[in-house]
């Protein structure tokens, strides 16, 4: 799933390549991707792109006051092209959900919103105010804007595990499954630590890790083409999606805890005092 650094890089790409261009045409290949019906998607046509930004993990294309807000979900992506096909896509065929022509069809650039797999979560809204999007309205403060003092305030009294708190977008926006693993590893904290019981030293380490991990990822991502962002993200990860490989800090084997539809990775030596965490799915398989 694209997280804060990748969405920021996509926003920067659009600021560089899309701002100042006119939306000539929208091709809707999947009606279910559009979550709003008023204003209609045709209202974007003829408008000039005046800005591009980010709200947590939501991408926002400002078309002269009318916003195309996109959440890429787990398997969605933005694919930029210097020339898009003039032929409208066939609805329901392939991964394409929405195509935005920023020039005459067949002549100018634009981008596709695509989604792999059968489980669809990619969503787009056309609104006059981004906070009209329910997910944006519920967002907590952006992760890169949270000070050490604010982090302590946000976590005060929280009873959930640290992994859950870091990925709760209503608490703090922008951190997902991958970067939460990287942040906890950098801070040397267990994913199962109780968020509201972290002491001052642990909160210090956590705040430094949030800032360093996200800023480093943004620095590596911004300026990359959209096609290279996924690979750039993978290349910078130390524990996430590296189950069975050696930890680059201590050499211990990176472990995994799996759930029904997701998993997280961690290093026992760096994060849990050398003790592997219980993986309930694996335990059930061994019975």
Automatic annotation (TrEMBL):
Which UniProt key words apply to this protein?
DNA damage, DNA repair, DNA-binding, Glycosidase, Hydrolase, Lyase, Metal-binding, Multifunctional enzyme, Zinc, Zinc-finger
Indicate whether DNA repair appears among the record's keywords: yes
Listed under catalytic activity are: 2'-deoxyribonucleotide-(2'-deoxyribose 5'-phosphate)-2'-deoxyribonucleotide-DNA = a 3'-end 2'-deoxyribonucleotide-(2,3-dehydro-2,3-deoxyribose 5'-phosphate)-DNA + a 5'-end 5'-phospho-2'-deoxyribonucleoside-DNA + H(+); Hydrolysis of DNA containing ring-opened 7-methylguanine residues, releasing 2,6-diamino-4-hydroxy-5-(N-methyl)formamidopyrimidine
Q: Which SMART domains match?
A: Fapy_DNA_glyco, H2TH
Residue ranges occupied by any FPG-type domain in the UniProt entry: 238-272
Q: Which SUPFAM superfamilies match?
A: Glucocorticoid receptor-like (DNA-binding domain), N-terminal domain of MutM-like DNA repair proteins, S13-like H2TH domain
A GO molecular function term, named singly, is:
8-oxo-7,8-dihydroguanine DNA N-glycosylase activity
Question: Its family?
Answer: Belongs to the FPG family.
**This protein is called what?**
Formamidopyrimidine-DNA glycosylase
């Amino acid at each position: 799933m694209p997280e804060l650094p990748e969405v920021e890089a996509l926003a920067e790409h659009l600021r560089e390549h899309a701002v100042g261009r006119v939306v000539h045409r929208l091709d809707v290949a999947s009606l279910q991707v559009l979550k709003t019906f008023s204003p209609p998607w045709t209202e974007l046509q003829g408008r000039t792109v005046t800005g591009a930004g980010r709200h947590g993990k939501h991408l926002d294309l400002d078309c002269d006051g009318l916003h195309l807000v996109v959440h890429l979900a787990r398997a969605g992506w933005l694919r930029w092209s210097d020339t898009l096909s003039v032929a409208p896509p066939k609805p329901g065929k392939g991964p394409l959900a929405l195509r935005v022509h920023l020039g005459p069809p067949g002549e100018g650039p634009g981008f596709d919103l695509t989604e792999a797999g059968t489980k669809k979560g990619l969503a787009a809204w056309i609104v006059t105010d981004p906070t009209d999007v329910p997910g944006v309205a519920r967002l907590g403060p952006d992760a890169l804007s949270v000070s050490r003092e604010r982090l302590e305030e946000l976590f005060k009294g929280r009873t959930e595990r640290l992994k859950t708190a870091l990925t709760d977008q209503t608490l703090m926006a922008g951190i997902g499954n991958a970067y939460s693993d990287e942040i906890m590893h950098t801070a040397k904290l267990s994913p199962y630590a109780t968020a509201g019981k972290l002491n001052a030293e642990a909160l210090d380490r956590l705040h430094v890790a949030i800032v360093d991990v996200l800023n480093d990822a943004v620095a590596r991502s911004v300026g990359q083409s959209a096609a290279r962002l996924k690979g750039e993200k993978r290349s910078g990860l130390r524990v996430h999606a590296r189950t069975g490989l050696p930890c680059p800090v201590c050499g211990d084997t990176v472990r995994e805890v799996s759930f029904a539809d997701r998993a997280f990775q961690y290093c026992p030596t760096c994060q849990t005092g050398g003790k592997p965490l219980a993986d309930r799915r694996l335990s059930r398989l061994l019975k």
